[in-house]
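Hi all, posting the design record for the shared folder.

TITLE: backbone redesign
STEP: 1 of 1
STRUCTURE INPUT:
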């Protein structure tokens, strides 16, 4: 099994255009972890209806994350020993790396949430509600999403880490 450096720009473009499918660039198990975290957040994200902004910020968050993941992957290739390299293609590696994507996703959705409801309130002539939506709603949305999704993510990550430790005999 050969491990090659990943071009961050290629990773950015693939993830920006194809979303989770662009993560096949990193291997199938990393792709599966990306899809699993994406499904969790998309189910949560469909509660709010603003599809254009949702898709735009989601695509940007995938692109930014893939760029950073490629840089991190390349640094790990230099740091890891021959025995540690297969870890870079595990589901656990992909899942752990998705915490950064989750941050980009939540920030993007908070901005989209505030912008959407701010503009909607301005269009209906409710200036005060529009200002509050632009200034306060993103922070409330960010706080709520960060803690709700972060809690679910932490539980799943804990289960995966315990399973990984058992397989490696680290318990």
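Okay, here is what came back for every position:
SEQUENCE:
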């Amino acid at each position: 099994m050969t491990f090659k450096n990943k071009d961050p720009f290629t990773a950015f473009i693939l993830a920006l255009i194809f979303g989770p499918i662009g993560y096949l660039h990193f291997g199938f198990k990393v792709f599966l972890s990306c899809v699993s975290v994406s499904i969790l957040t998309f189910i949560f994200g469909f509660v709010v209806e603003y599809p254009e902004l949702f898709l735009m910020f989601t695509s940007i968050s995938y692109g930014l994350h893939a760029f950073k993941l490629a840089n991190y992957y390349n640094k790990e290739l230099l740091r890891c020993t021959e025995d540690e390299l297969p870890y870079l293609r595990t589901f656990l590696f992909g899942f752990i790396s998705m915490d950064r994507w989750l941050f980009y996703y939540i920030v993007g959705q908070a901005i989209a949430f505030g912008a959407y409801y701010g503009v909607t309130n301005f269009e209906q002539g409710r200036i005060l509600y529009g200002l509050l939506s632009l200034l306060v709603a993103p922070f409330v949305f960010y706080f709520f999403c960060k803690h709700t999704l972060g809690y679910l993510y932490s539980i799943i990550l804990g289960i995966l880490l315990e399973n990984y430790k058992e397989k490696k005999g680290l318990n």
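COMMENT: Residues 91-123 form the longest helix (33 residues).
Let me know if anyone wants the other runs.
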